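Reviewers of the previous submission asked for a worked example of the structure-prediction workflow described in the proposal, so we include one complete record here. The input consisted solely of the amino acid sequence. No template or homolog information was supplied to the procedure at any stage.
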Amino acid sequence: MTKLYDHLKPYAGPILFAIFLHIIRTITELFLPTITADMVNNGITTGNVNYILQLGLLMLGVALLSSIASISANYLSSKAANGFTRDLRQEVFTQVEHFSLHEFDRFGTSSLINRTTNDIAQVRTLLDFGLRMSIIAPIMSIGSVIMAYRRDPGLALVFVVVIPVLALIIIGVVYKGLPLFEAVQKKLDEMNLILRERLSGIRVIRAFHRESVEKERFQHKNTDYTLTSIAVNRIMGAMMPMVTLTMNLAILLIVWFGGFRIMEGHMMVGDLMAFIQYAMQVMSALILLTRVFLIIPKAMTSWGRVGQILDTVPEITDPQTPLEPEAVHGHVRFDKVDFYYPGAEFPALSGISFEAKPGETTAIIGSTGSGKTTLASLLLRHYDPTSGSIQVDGVDIRDMKQETLRSQVGYTAQRTLLFSGSIRENLLWGKEDATDEELEDACRIAQAKEFIDRLQEGYDHQLSQGAKNLSGGQKQRLAMARALVGKTPILLFDDSFSALDYTTEARLRLALAQEMSDRTLLVISQRINTVMEADQILVMDTGRIVGQGTHEELLKTNPVYQEIVASQLNKEEIA
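From that input alone, the workflow returned the following structure tokens.
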């Protein structure tokens, strides 16, 4: 939460000046009923036109001052609120960028999006409207009571009865509503998660005819969210009529008793008019205050949710004195690496030890869930190992800056992800200042140049969201080209050949062998044809390396590898 308050410091000046202007505005408005009362008592009732003109000009000047102060204060508070929330969104975005996958798993993508958009918007409303009203309403209500007391102390006793009643109403409603606001935000996160899954997984949902099931699932969460929101709105909605009813009864009492006091000669007509105006100002101030109390529970819940992100210390951070390899070759070494996912009973990886050397291809094969992708995540330092170490060129990756480590690895993920924009823009992710020749060379090796040249706009061809206007194989080849553009010493392909036909894959493997002979190539796959020509093959099963060697060696000695081969190749191909 401290970081949230730190973001307010640059705007302390405008906020304090806005508060000062709000005070000026409120004080000037408090004097208007008094001027009106004097005009009626000493001008209108006596027919003194000059006195009426003098007070009229005074009222005009006071109203003008009030308007200038109000406009200036609103401008400053709005500017401060918008600047604060702009900085806060940027800070939250930057903080989330530094999160490890542990933190992403803990918060959830839908919740992070909600906190960055909806919750920060609630905070902005509190800082802008809430700041204004929290200054104006108390001064206006207290000042109006004081000014009314000066006009008639006896009649001001009405406020002594009314104000505690109003305070009890507001406190009771807020006390009941605050826990429900927190529940509403959590249910909104859950509903957004289901909506996000439905939209991103629409093809799978339709393929399995699950529209009705997903509709019912969303409807259940939507109904739950709606009922909780209705409960909150019922509580908060009851406050305004109760406040209005109480204040209208107060005005009725003022007129009733004020009439008797005028007939008895204890009060003048102008004083009663001023008293009614002050009562209306008290009512307006308390109505504004109720609106603030409607905002505060939502905003404070959101404030806490945003603060949780900023106060979260990422599990994976750069060392204070980072080390860098003396020479960059791309030599990778896993030494007795164990890894548990948070809360897992069994390790995802256990006792992993191997070396991947420059100029060699190391292939990793195994059944689904054997730990292949987890191994890749550890090399990229998306997670840190529970025990053991991972070294690149003799330096433990925990002693390196994350940027340095990842700049040495050209990576394609198991799930191909391309961004909306042109093909060129996507390729430049691999190297921002890459020339056209470097882009074409990378695409030629990745077997993507041929289909790009057939496109009318070539490298300027626009990709839709998720590159839906490309086939799976085209997306994989572009992802590999993006990894190749940077000419990194380490290439890590995580199941990046799965959508390629065997002919294209064979050409790609041949191009990699010819062009990348000085780099360390790590290939994760479930296809025997992809790994059989590797210099060394690691066979994984239930998080362990159960075999290591060449295709021929493993085919003779390793039962797990033999089983995988037998499931994919016939006897003639094996021979």
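The longest strand covers residues 332-339. We consider this example representative of the routine output the project will generate in years two and three.
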